[in-house]
Amino acid sequence: MTETPEQPNGQTLPLAAELKPLPDELIVDSDDLAVVLDALRELKTDWAEVLEDSRLGLARLTGVECLAGAVADLPAKLRAAFAASAGGWQPEVDLHWSTLGSIGSAGSKPMGVGTIGPVAVGTAGSKPMGGGGDGSKPMGAGVIGPIAVGTAGSKPMTAGDPMDAGPVDQPAADAPTGAGVAVAMIDTPLFRHPVFTGRDVRTREWHTKGTTTLLTNRAGHGTFVCSVILAHAPAARIEADGALDSATSEATEWEVAQEIVRLGDRADILNLSLASHTLDGAPSLVLRRAVDRLPRRVLVIAAAGNHGETADPLLTGATPMWPAGLPGVVAVGAMDRDGIRLPFSPDAPWVSCQAVGFEVRGAYPGGWAKWTGTSFAAARVTGLVAARTVPGRVSPAEAFELVLDDPDSGVERYHWSGPNPGE
Prior knowledge:
By secondary structure, this protein is of the alpha/beta class. It has helices spanning 33-42, 74-83, 221-232, 253-264, 285-292, 374-388, 396-405, and strands at residues 26-29, 45-46, 49-53, 58-62, 65-66, 92-95, 119-122, 147-149, 152-156, 163-164, 182-186, 201-203, 237-241, 251-252, 269-272, 274-275, 299-303, 330-335, 353-356, 360-364, 367-371, 411-413. Strand 20 (360-364) and strand 21 (367-371) form a beta hairpin. 54% of the residues are buried.
């Protein structure tokens, strides 16, 4: 077990959860599916089924099995196969490890521990990705190609377990802040809680377990995040999707990406207090594709991760987390109430801002809690942006700038302390 130094509240903060690679799955760009399948046949590689998602423009091959050699050998074999083809198409082939973010107890093992992970094959001539939310920086041109092997992926980002807290003061029942603003979030399923009474909170399915006995502490993550958003924008309409399993808080990137495009059609702001990373630091194909397919009006706000301090040679405090590290996404780090970056929050050039993320107070199944992590810093930013968004007059991107300009918001621009690009 690797731990950060003891925090002011006496806790030691875990760095990561277990790694859950899925080496028997392939994600393929639908435009390249035929040529990839032909190459796999030539390489004596079988698969169980192909599942296509037209909204993502991707296909998912399950049950991939190499009859000669291991799945981990596919990168070199695919390079050689495409280089020798008549067209001479030479994709970039990179190793990916779509790991899970941190939400577990202090006994979680560090990120990067384990065997070789998933693979991504990128098309060298990929077209530039489209723009992000209105007023946000556009998705830049990049090498995002047809295959990613292994899609174990997204998990809520926290830095320690929740602690008991007394009731939290709530906005008045008729508070109009955030009225008309649609906020979507993907997290663990919501528990029924008094904090949601009289609020416009929608979900496909409420958590079916009792409110006093939890499978794990992480089961209350979505409930907590939702309550933090509502504390700042009580009149906003919240649509919560419980894509992450309550017991493990895990979901594949494929599952999360599908929910991103589903919810994006009717959202102004999308809160993603979850993350994954890749071994080579290249963007997650699946999550990037999902964000790229969102309407331009949608502002995506994501947790930056809790890996600011780690002894793992495969992971540093600057390692990008996805989707936070994608261009056009607001990546939120965590600071204390004095504006000082918390040690677990990454110090990286792709972090957009930092918000108070220390002992945030919110609703928890069966009561109230205080919790520390970039998940809750991101929820604060989402709530404050929703509070300042005025449909038809002030866009979420413009509202985000208003939040940054407010010295009392508990949110500030992040200034990376590292070297300038190229140094």
